[in-house]
Amino acid sequence: MDRDRHDDVTSARDAVVAGRTTLGIELGSTNIKACLVGPDSRTIAVGSFTWENQFVDRVWTYSLDAVHEGLRGAFAALAADVRERYGVPLTAVGGLGVSAMMHGYLAFDAAGDLLVPFRTWRNTSTGQAAAELTRALEFNVPLRWSVAHLYQAMLDEEPHVPQVAFLTTLAGYVHWRLTGERVLGVGDASGMFPVDASTGDYDEARLAAFDALAAARGTAAPARASLRAPLRALLPSVLPAGAAAGRLTPEGAALLDPTGTFAAGVPLCPPEGDAGTGMVATNAVAPRTGNVSAGTSIFAMVVLEKALAAVHPEIDVVTTPSGDPVAMVHCNNGASELGAWAQVFEQFARALGVEAGQGAVFAALLGAALDGDPDGGGLLAYNYLSGETITGLDEGRPLLVRTPGSRLTLANFARTQVCSVFATLALGMRTLAAEGVAVDALLAHGGLFRTPGVAQRLLAAAVDAPVAVAATAGEGGAWGVAVLAAYTAAVADGEERALAAWLDEHVFADALTVVARPEAADVAGMGAYLERYTAGLSIEHAAVAAIH
Length: 548
Known about the structure:
Layout: H1 3-18, E1 22-27, E2 31-37, E3 43-50, E4 54-56, E5 59-61, H2 64-86, E6 95-100, E7 106-108, H3 127-137, H4 146-155, E8 166-168, H5 170-179, E9 183-185, H6 186-189, E10 195-196, E11 201-202, H7 204-220, H8 222-225, H9 231-234, E12 237-239, H10 250-256, E13 272-273, H11 274-281, E14 289-294, E15 298-303, E16 316-319, E17 325-331, H12 336-351, H13 358-369, E18 380-382, E19 399-401, H14 410-434, E20 441-445, H15 455-463, E21 467-470, H16 476-492, H17 499-507, E22 513-516, H18 520-535, H19 537-546
Parallel strand pairs: 1-6, 6-13, 9-12, 14-20, 20-21
Antiparallel strand pairs: 1-2, 2-3, 4-5, 7-8, 10-11, 14-15, 15-17, 16-17, 18-19, 21-22
């Protein structure tokens, strides 16, 4: 082992033993990741647990048992990694943070029991509620927001509604189990109900408007559709980045580590959504910055300099973890269909007697995409495994469509699949451009960008803006929330810099970043592809209607 490597290991081991680390845990769509970060903000150990959502009774869900199992599995993998790397047990950390998929519906009664299975962000059954709330609140309420799920349950006269005593998100639920505190970071809270950027709390006027709407609904069907408390009483308290958010209880420590090795008492930062931790991971929390996160879903976040002029159904207005307003273009469907095709090619290679892991297959597909025609050779792909609000679909049917004159090659197939990942996002970003929203560069993160120069280049073409990928971008939201935990610890020690300045000067001062600028041929090709994509949406609608 060379001296620098030895010094790094020794330094990391000392930090682990002294508890001068922070731990971030993020519950993503397909993976629960635990990330241990040292005092210099570098990752020193990781652990993960693979899981998958279930489609039960036409609802996308995860069981709470799966949540608990996944937390234990990810933590156990992390602890094993620490022991293998440094030869010491993981007994304590200096701070802890939890992040998870935003939005959705977790409703509990007064005893703390779950009333209905967790309804994730992926469900699109709240169209009537979202439309009525958008009109009543004069604010775009997306289908996946918690308040849309609650109001849809009222419209559907679901019998559990009068028993609702507490609503939260997945990150909020895990934080509650770890600390006993019913709180939420402002970024995640802004996906439950609109937040007033001037106060950093739920919008009081809109809370009153919702309560009036709910009261009128209750008068119409009091036995089955009435809430027994104002909405604010049902929601978690809102906290900004840097705020103290409780400490790990003995019960919370046992949930993470049933062996009893990990000690209680660790301070926690406010729990955040994956959008907020993605902003931190890419250092995109200041005005005129933005980021794109590509995974099971794909979304862009642009920090606003001023409020949007109009309400747009394809644009969510949420906040950074510090409470600054953000325009969010969220697409339910990201890279899952591309991943499914990668599995097919992996199986094909195996049938030929060649063992190629999915990582190698992904790299080969992405590499081939650069050799494809700029417009995909006339091919058309829809990656819709679930519904998509921006294009008006309640359900999805993945499709590959071509004409007899199209050029079906591996390169065009691969390019078309990558274009399909970014197509719906590009349509939403056009709305922001029409509003005059300026962004200096988008910072991209997610596994799709680990293969250098491919997805980044095609995303730049799709949004017609520079796209940067930082060396830290591959760390993801678990790293981002570990950094937020470190910021909370710094504030407790007297740190006075705002989050954006602290990130610039403490975390990203020496970060390496690669920028891809849109190339004219790629932009023109993507433009032609998007025209074909928009015209072909009627095919997708017909497929949903015809194939059940």
